[in-house]
Queue: 2 jobs
Job 1
Amino acid sequence: MALLQISEPGQSPDPHQRRIAVGIDLGTTHSLVAAVRNGVAECLPDGQGRVILPSVVRYLEGGGRQIGHDAHAAQAHDPENTVASVKRFMGRGLKDIANREKLPYRFTDASEQGGMVSLQTRAGAKSPVEISAEILVTLRYRAEDTFGNDLYGAVITVPAYFDDAQRQATKDAAKLAGINVLRLINEPTAAAIAYGLDNGSEGIYAVYDLGGGTFDISILRLTRGVFEVIATGGDSALGGDDYDRALADWILGQAAVMAASPAAKAAVKMSARMAKEALSTQDSVVARVELERRAIEVTVTRNDFEAVTADLTARTMTAVRKTLRDAKLGRDEVKGVVMVGGSTRMPQVQRAVGEFFGREPLTNLNPDEVVALGAAIQANALAGNNASGDLLLLDVIPLSLGIETMGGLVERIVPRNETIPTAKAQDFTTYKDGQTAMALHVVQGERDLVQDCRSLARFELRGIPPMAAGAARIRVTFTVDADGLLSVNAREQGSGVEARIDVKPSYGLSDDEIARLLQESFTTAEQDMKARALAEAKVEAERMVIATRSALDGDGQLLGAQERAHIDDLMRQLQDIAQSGSDAGAIEAATEALAKGTEAFAAARMNHSIQQALAGKNVETL
Amino acid sequence: MNLQSNDFELFALPQRFAQDASAIDARWKELQREAHPDRFAAQGAAAQRVAMQWSARINEAYRRLKDPLQRASYLCELRGAPINAENNTAMPAKFLIEQMDWREALEEAEDEPSLDALWDQLRQSRHEVLQDIERLLDRDNDAPAAAQQVRALMFIERFGRDIEARFEQLGQ
């Protein structure tokens, strides 16, 4: 297919330069960035050789910020301004946040505007999207420094159960960080890709992901290189930290002391954590803790540790069983189990999983890195660097989408687990004579009452011609794209009056907000904003010209002479401005003009090439 | 072929009720491999939009072809006998009596074994109706009669959901 040849070796429009595409694991406790180099996916280290970036952002006096290890270290003495685990707040309202009284943050409820929570810091109110963007931009710079080049795009991973608001928030954060999102993919799918399961054998796979603070279990089905997430489950408040806490309590019990102050508690927990990690490779360890009045020493054997945490491991297995039931599968049908998350290094966890499934789980990749590695492989394929890449990810929508009807009931339009992308239409009508407007309320969830579902957006269709009640035919179309993001379109069939929204108002940021945030964003501080904007505009212009030229080479015959001349003209103008210009705005405008001018051509090419590809097939070739 | 082609044309399958489920699966994945927006990730927004339309259309056809009830309704409609379930509720007396018996049995079912028995009956009945539909559509070419059986199948499916709900109740 002509469209795909652009990046085949030797024909690359830019032969000396591959597109820099990375995979980003934006995790609850830590984040990583990985890329395919010399055919191998690897995590990129920071200047000090560390690949893990703690997902912690600290706002400093005077407008600066710390991200990662430094922020993590400051958590104990500056908790209010040091935000950890921000992923839990993405796309969430105040009432969604469990145990918020136990958290050190001052939340601002934006629910009267239907918005996401924000956190009061000394740098002002910060939304989870902004905070996540700080982490993403740190990883972006790390990648750009590694390659000495601008980033082409990234695949970012999200938990399989993330709803529309959470996915949208993640995408907004990437936008704010100046990252072109090639695709959001589900974390378990990324892990399976890292293990190369996609080019291995077909079947059912389980991904057991025990991180610092969360446990996720996902069941995937692979057929002919297509991954489908068929069920997900887990416990959002169970992770390695709970093992640390259980062991810390036990150590205190053994020493018959109490840890009263926060500092003492933290010291015991740190010691427990070190003991836990040591016990992954040795049978016993001595835990030492300096408390206020005395130092304690307690010998911990692996058996002790396993005994005090047995119920935690058992809880994960209960979730595994439930998820298998949801998937209507037996444990013997699972062909392989992938282990993800640092906590799966614990021998008792590996043993429990192995015994349950009756097979050794896959553990040979670093469980902290596996998600980022898989995302990198997918990013590389999507950027067109891997022409032989034959991987196709088909996802399902994790939660049903519907619309509010009379009496606060939900009319389901897209049921959960439906394969995306998808478009679904449903007809509604007016209920009053002469009604000229109709309010639509879009919700997500499995319950029948609107109040039990998540509100995604409200919008209004106006200008319906006055008719008798029930005479108008209003077709509401839900379109869910490959990333699982929704847009809704409403159209009165008789008059053609239309209303359309990309669903984001309730929990996402509006485009205006993003523009404002981009303007006042972190990039100003360290980077010369203008130079960066100019460089980006030039890269974008070049990208557009290359794409247009290769499209003309391949499918120019689809154009009339006049259309062709028009496009050539626009292309020349853009090249001139990009070469000589120093005005990012003018370059962007010319790029935009070329994009607009080639829209019809692009659609014609796509239709043409897809039809050709499809028409060549018939039943016999299957 | 275009976005308006019918599901069978799109999937290059014979326009009949009897289908090989694995052929539908295989064809679906093959089509998605060509049309999925990921294939066009590097080619700009316009290409992505068109790919999404195609990809969503392929998924729609897949769901309809895969489910016997939806496939049968669709075929009836293509052959000029739309189902119109909401305006067309007249059913043969025999069928209605059977339905009433089932409902009564469901009301009285107090334990899982009696629900299991009802479930088996339902499956049997469903199987018979599907065979009728296949005969009427593929051999007798009698779409109006098939549409009548499709409506019967809709009753049966709804009853199946009620049994499931009852199972859930008992399970709690």
Note: Chain B touches chain A through 42 residues (CB under 8 Å).
Job 2
Amino acid sequence: MSIMEVRSVTYSYDGTKNVLNDISASFEEGKVYAILGPSGCGKTTLLSLIGGLDVPTSGTILFDGTDIQQAGLEAHRSKHVSFIFQNYNLIDYMTPIENAALSATKEAAGAALKRLGLTDSEIKRNVLKLSGGQQQRVAIARALVADTRVILADEPTGNVDDAMSVEITKILKESAKETGKCVIIVTHSIDLAKEADTVFVLKNGVLQEQKPAELETGSN
Amino acid sequence: MSPLHRAYLYLTRKRGKTILLFLIILVIAMMALSSFSLKGAVQTAQLNVRESLGGSFFVEPNKQNYNKYEYDEETQERIFIGKMPTKELAESIAGELDGLSGYCLTRTWRARMSKEEGGQDVNLVPGNAGPMDLLMQEQAKQEDSQTDIYITLGVDICTDSAFHPFFMNQSILLTQGEHITEEDDDSILISEDLAEKNGLSVGDTVYLRDQNSVLKKNKAEQPIYAPVTIAGLFSINGTSDAESGYTSAENMIITTQDAVKSFTVASDKELEQYDQIHFFAEDPADIASMVEIVERRDDFYQTNDFLAYANNEHIVAVEGPLQSINRLVDFLILLVFAIGVIVLWLVLSSRIKDRIHETGILLSVGLRKANILAQYLVEITAVTLLACTVAIFGSVLISDVTEEFLRGTLTTTAQQQQESSMVIQPEDSIDTPAAPSIIGNTQQQKALTEISVTIEPVHIFLLYGAGLLLSWIAVAAASISLLRLKPREILSKMS
């Protein structure tokens, strides 16, 4: 059963040219989805609409069958979804454990960080003193420990090397399976998209579902 | 994570920004606290001036109007036939005015005083004329002297000695005994100097007799020796400017109308009339408006029977510098407030807007806007409270410096005031003896220079209140403008 649904959504920045044009999609719990597309095609915009950071020009976004705008975007962001950003978006005066504990207990945050490979000393260090990969793991830990059913990841491997990219993808897949969360990843990496259960390709404002196996190898 | 915890983390981890904000608020708080304490000190100084100089006005008969005189063929003198102030007039005026602390009707009389009935006159305190004055006294003691030269004591009849003008402006101070009122029909107050010179003390009985009893032309009647009790002694704060003991304050007797009635040869009708009525205001600042009200009365405006004089020139003169300082302090407070508001606004707005990224993150992790705002308010509250507390200690130093400066300014003013100081007297009446006057009221000068720039609890309360309020408004306004951004705008600003 779908937890999130995008229904006939159109979005335009200036009211003339549609970035998203009457698109629809549904997302289920326990699965990983990849939204693939070239830069500037509207992937992040779609993710922000699903996450309640923006509102569509027309159409509706549903969470568990309820319009998130009617339920309240703030409540949607705090209760239903958690984000992983390309640029990590960590609070710079906090340690990894404090960042991860923003929306959970310190114990859960610590356990998540350790599961993602950070040592005791690393989780108490200032986040700016960590490598890019470690910072991204902190961001992932923060999303994982949050008591939400949907994780929205915007280019989660965009700033890390290939090895880390594979590892992050693996973590997200495992999380989806173990916790039953719905993971929606926006990426332009075909390799990452191939790891998803379902792939949506966004091109010219239109969203098309595609099987991961049918994707061409290599980065887009 | 609670807003309190996040605020603690921000303040302790972003030390540079926290210290900078702390220093800015500290400077503003110190300036504000110093201004508050300075304002309080100036207000206290103004109150001291008013209390020491007193605020009064007096009413006296209008002797400037030539229609109020008649020519006496027999004596070939012009005699004043106008109305004189009475108790009824005093009560009528007092009934029209709000804010009066009291009033006193006075009349200056002359009398002689002896320690025994029929005995010799007491020794008077000599005036500034020296040997000549003493010679006059000796001559006056000779009842059968063939000269008209005589020496008497000045007698101030007063309905309530506590409201005698000299007591009110602290030119004289009651040092022993009690004040007298019109109910006391046989009591007097004399100076310590006169008492000491004649071995008198409170409770002693002395005898008063009319001055005219020594004049040759009135010697047909035997003088009446009226026994009176010394109810109190007063000290003179300053020096009498009288050249002769005849008019010196040291030889002044303050008593009641009934006491004078017991020895004088004057008629009852004459005794019902007073020279002046002195009215005293609770707040000397009201004197001018009170005089205006009195001057609108029919017996002042229509029939021109009486004149009213404000006795607040000294207050106006001495308060001038204080009012200038007060205006300067008001301007300073306004300036500090304006600078404080602008600087705090700019600093806090910039600080909050710099944190748009953090705000976006917190929003994206699901924190409510109120929760985020609470963090920023907790931060500014902590810094403001700390800065205000430190400012209290810093301001003590500033207050000391300011106090020295103010005291120097006021001492100069007081000295100038002392040089030109004279108790204001009405224009000398034609048929009443001149009243004594006192210059160099040291009590007044002391009061003028008694200034203390101290930080009162109310200033501290005001500082914390205003500081927190300003900080909260600045943070809330800056935060609200940020938090009112649409999520899309936050997202775009974040990226």
Note: Residues 94-146 of chain A form one domain.
